[in-house]
Amino acid sequence: MILSINEKGRRIDRMIRGKKEYREIPCDYLCGRIGIERKTVDDFVRSIIDGRLDRQVAECINNNLLPVVIVEGRWNILGNDLSTPTRRHYGLGKSFITKLAKLVLGGAQVIWSPRPEETATIISAIERLGERTGWGEEIDLSHYTETRRKRPGSRATKIRILTSIRGIGEHRARKALEHANWSIRRIQEMTERELAKAVGPESAKRIKEALR
Fold first, then answer.
1. Tell me: the pLDDT tens digits for 52-76?
2. Could you tell me the pTM of the whole model?
3. For 153-210, CATH number?
4. CA–CA gap between residue 40 and residue 42 (Å, rounded)
5. Which of 4, 43, 48, 150 has its CA 20 to 30 A from that of 77?
6. Which pLDDT does position 198 carry in this prediction?
7. Which fold is adopted by the domain 2-147?
8. 186: nearest Cα among 194, 145, 209, 37
9. What is the distance between the alpha carbons of residues 178 and 155, in angstroms, rounded to a whole number?
């Protein structure tokens, strides 16, 4: 199994057993020709609204991968109907349903997982299934890795990662990254108290929870 270098050391990484490699890939986890994106429910909703997930799925398809999106967490943020205050806050109306339908019709497989432990189990199961069905054949992504190395704007990408977290604006994202010498990995490794020195306790808690 191949994991994105951004996933190294995260909670799911520690839960997944077996042989693993870390590379620049167009998804979070790569099981043969199956590209897996892991999203919390909150991030899933936001990434559909802002078009981020569309781009991530398209990048998998463009690299001849079968895109699978694992949505992790409780669905209660969606409420019981389209008129609830929470749904209005997220902008979940007909346009959201349309975007979700287009995502699925575009080739993405969406799987729900209640918690990280089940997510790790699902990813391992996909890896085993791929080996048995022919989807486990490793695909050459050297062209993708080379393109990523040449791609500018890595700081902008890191800012986008942090601003995708609910309640984190660009100012606090920059403060966090400057405090960590512009390393997402370092933010993951530092304690919540240490990160709070740069962005305050509430923002530090949000960032640490999102980057687990």
1. 888 888 888 888 888 999 999 876 5
2. 0.61
3. 1.10.150.20
4. 5
5. 4
6. 92
7. Rossmann fold (3.40.50)
8. 194
9. 10
